[in-house]
Amino acid sequence: MSTSGTGASAVQSVDRAVTILEMVAARGELGITEIAEGLDVHKSTASRLVAALQHRHLLEQLSDRGKYALSFGIVRLAAATTGRLDMARLGQPVCQRLAEVLGETVNLAITDGEAGITVAQEFGTATIASQNWVGRRSPLHATAAGKVLLAWAPEDERRAVLRRRLAQYTDDTITEVAALRTELARVLDEGHARSFEELEVGMHAVAVPVFAADGSVASALSATGPVYRLPRRRARAIVADLREGAAELSAKLGHRGE
């Protein structure tokens, strides 16, 4: 049975829902009749779309007038985006300075559901060719930054990741839950994480936590380079440089230190 019609209908519904949010944002508040006229649809269709947006707390009904306005769900989504943008803006100078000092690519990553996402990146002076990871998601269990984010994550978030199958990317990827728990305990004890060819053969990385004002880990600052230029000994040696950069960024976030 063909599902092309169903797919087109779903896309149309999403488009109409987004249009409703844009209309309400522009006008401040709108009634069902106004929304239906703006979409050029029947009032029953407009009502169903508004009900879905209201259920997801993106719209709320103003009881005294029966019209609809944007709800707190919009603020929640905007806050998440603002947080990423602020982290990238504050972290970029730190990444740039470290990349110049270390000669390697420096990244800043935050948690994005059950993965990590790079919000800032600066290529090192010694880099011949590197991938642009900004905006890309990466597995928490197979990257240095991901291990930092996972080690300091709230227990329920950490359990959610550990309940899933741990994908294998190379022969050195940790895929056993018990082994990953041991690794995360080491990360907490030593204050930094390492990934030696666990995500990509021939690549090493080391990462440290960046703390928010409340003491939680806001992001992970990491340096990545090829094995021949960032061997295990050097990877451990540059932890001090990364910690200095992380302390600078943590201070910008309002963290007072230990």
Which key terms come to mind for this protein?
258 residues; 9 helices; 2 domains; Arc Repressor Mutant, subunit A; DNA-binding; Tscrpt_reg_IclR_C; alpha+beta; 49% helix; 8 strands; transcription; six-stranded antiparallel beta sheet; elongated
List the helices and strands and how they pair.
Elements: H1 4-27, H2 32-39, H3 43-55, E1 59-62, E2 67-70, H4 72-102, E3 105-112, E4 115-122, E5 137-139, H5 144-151, H6 155-162, H7 177-190, E6 193-196, E7 203-211, E8 217-226, H8 232-237, H9 239-252
Antiparallel strand pairs: 1-2, 3-4, 3-8, 4-5, 6-7, 7-8
Helix pairs in contact: 2-3, 4-9, 5-7
Beta-strand residue fraction: 15-25%
Major beta-sheet overview = 6 strands, antiparallel
CATH class of the largest domain: Alpha Beta
Radius of gyration, CA atoms, in whole angstroms: 23 Å
Mean pLDDT comes to: 85
Secondary-structure-derived class: alpha+beta
CATH-level-2 architecture of the largest domain: 2-Layer Sandwich
The number of strands is: 8
Number of DSSP helical runs: 9
CATH topology of the largest domain: Beta-Lactamase
CATH H level, superfamily name of the largest domain: GAF domain
Give the SSE string. HHHEEHEEEHHHEEEHH
The best one-word shape is elongated
Strand order of the largest sheet: 5-4-3-8-7-6
Domain module count: 2
User: How far apart are the termini?
Assistant: 62 Å
- The residue ranges in which pLDDT falls below 50 over 5 or more consecutive positions are none
* Portion in helices: 40-55%
